[in-house]
Amino acid sequence: MQPPILQHNALLAMEPIQICASELFAPYEYDPLDREAQEIRLLTLLPGAFSSEIRLCLDITPFTKQHVLEFEAVSYAWGSLDNPGNIFIESKSGRRTLAVTQNLAEALAYLRFEDKPRILWID
């Protein structure tokens, strides 16, 4: 059946379409923290090469004497919101995008391991 092959070749000859990554995924919306439950939000920085997109998971968990957590804390200067960088939040409901300052996006690239996740709390 030749027509499907012709259609495939026709698609290959088309001009490439440029789509911004932030247009592919819905924006991430933070779930509120429960102060009474002493919740904090931890970021699991997923492994990847230095130049690959920043992917992470965000989890809300209590931080109490009874529920001790292991994580690394990162404090950074917020910087300008002009020209933000995009990071990608992975969750059960799908992938979302979050615009962050360029200095945070760059810091996450340097903090990321290539072969294992890293759990961070970021102020």
Quick rundown:
21% of the residues lie in helices and 30% in strands. It has three helices and six strands, in the order ααβββββαβ.
What can you tell me about this protein's structure?
With 123 residues, the chain is an alpha/beta fold. Helix content is 21%, strand content 30%. It has helices at residues 2-13, 21-24, 102-111; strands at residues 39-45, 55-62, 72-74, 85-91, 94-100, 118-122. It has a 6-stranded mixed β-sheet. Strand 4 (85-91) and strand 5 (94-100) form a beta hairpin.
What are the SSEs and their pairings?
Layout: H1 2-13, H2 21-24, E1 39-45, E2 55-62, E3 72-74, E4 85-91, E5 94-100, H3 102-111, E6 118-122
Parallel strand pairs: 2-4, 3-6
Antiparallel strand pairs: 1-2, 1-6, 4-5
Residue-averaged pLDDT, rounded?
80
Work out the helicity level: 10-25%
Individual helix count: 3
Strand order of the largest sheet: 3-6-1-2-4-5
**Derived structural class:** alpha/beta
Unreliable sequence segments:
1-23
- Listing every helix as H and every strand as E from the N terminus to the C terminus, the arrangement reads HHEEEEEHE
C-alpha end-to-end distance: 59 Å
Strand portion: 25-35%
Largest sheet: 6 strands, mixed
How many β strands by DSSP? 6
Radius of gyration of CA atoms, rounded to a whole number: 19 Å
Overall 3D shape: globular
